[in-house]
């Protein structure tokens, strides 16, 4: 929790410079534009008949420092499918913060101010997923049901997580990958995006999308029994064509 407080009081380090993100997008034939008086960049691209949206700019979460990169796409997953993968250090920080709020009986903040990732880490039981064993020192995973999570964490997604932890997430930057209300979300701290980071993030996101769809097919008809707890995961201040 101390780290989150430090991030919150530390403030911003100036206007974002999104030229690297724009250049990366244009080199790959993707749509890119500056928004909000050049304080952010929005990139959009296709994936298996869907459109993913990437935003880079001022963070929407207090545990992220200065700049974040976030992605989302509507995969039309079951609305109650709630799965979460976070960097290990962030998971521990958020769990400690949630515990502090619970023990202080701050129920209003828990209900209205706590982001999904913090609430899920506090509320969902820990599930032992065999595929996660090699990555347990670097990532944490929870879900409201073990079946979809086991399918989601397929070898391809595990390989991309391992690759990220050895490359663009090598310094254990805060990272969240989650499914919520039929959509897939990715957000992580990105002070100075590079082409390697952006390629890695998109590659991870594509693997997560593919395995999330596979998880939906594997557990079809079971989602009515899944517990659920959600509010909103994408509180964007950037223009969006996506319905909230």
Amino- and carboxy-terminal Cα gap:
29 Å
| Beta strand count | 8
Treating each run of at least 4 consecutive H or I residues as one helix, how many helices? Answer: 8
Radius of gyration: 17 Å
Q: What overall form do the CA principal axes indicate?
A: globular
Concise structural overview:
The chain is α+β, with helices and mostly antiparallel strands and 244 residues long. It is built from 8 helices and 8 strands.
Q: Could you explain how this protein is built, in words?
A:
It is a single chain. With 244 residues, the chain is of the alpha+beta class. The chain is 37% helix and 21% strand. The protein contains eight helices and eight strands, in the order H-H-E-E-E-E-E-H-H-H-E-H-H-E-E-H. The chain has helices at residues 2-10, 19-27, 88-103, 107-112, 116-123, 146-152, 155-165, 195-218; strands at residues 31-35, 40-47, 50-57, 68-74, 83-87, 139-143, 175-180, 183-189. It has an eight-stranded antiparallel beta sheet with strand order 1-2-3-4-8-7-5-6, sandwiched between helices. A hairpin with a 4-residue loop joins strand 1 (31-35) and strand 2. Helix 7 (155-165) runs antiparallel to helix 8. The longest helix is centred in the C-terminal third of the chain and has 24 residues, at 195-218. It starts with a helix and ends in a 26-residue tail after the last helix. 41% of the residues are buried.
């Amino acid at each position: 929790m101390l780290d989150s407080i430090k991030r919150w009081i530390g403030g911003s380090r100036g206007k974002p410079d999104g030229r690297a993100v724009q250049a990366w997008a244009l080199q790959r034939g993707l749509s890119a534009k500056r928004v909000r008086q050049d304080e952010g960049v929005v990139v959009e691209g296709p994936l298996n008949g869907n459109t993913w949206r990437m935003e880079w700019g001022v963070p929407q979460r207090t545990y992220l420092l200065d700049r974040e990169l976030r992605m989302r796409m509507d995969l039309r997953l079951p609305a109650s499918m709630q799965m979460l993968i976070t960097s290990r250090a962030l998971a521990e920080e958020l769990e400690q913060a949630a515990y502090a709020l619970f023990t202080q009986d701050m129920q209003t903040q828990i209900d209205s101010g706590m982001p999904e990732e913090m609430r899920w880490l506090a509320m969902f039981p820990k599930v032992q997923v065999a595929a996660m064993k090699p990555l347990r020192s670097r990532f944490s995973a929870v879900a409201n049901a073990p079946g979809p999570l086991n399918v989601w964490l397929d070898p391809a997604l595990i390989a991309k997580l391992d690759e990220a932890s050895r490359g663009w997430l090598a310094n254990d930057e805060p990272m969240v990958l989650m499914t919520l209300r039929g959509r897939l979300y990715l957000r992580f701290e990105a002070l100075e995006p590079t082409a390697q980071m952006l390629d890695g993030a998109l590659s991870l996101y594509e693997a997560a999308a593919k395995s999330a769809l596979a998880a939906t097919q594997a557990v079809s008809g079971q989602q009515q029994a899944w517990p659920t707890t959600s509010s909103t995961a994408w509180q964007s201040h950037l223009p969006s064509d996506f319905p909230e």
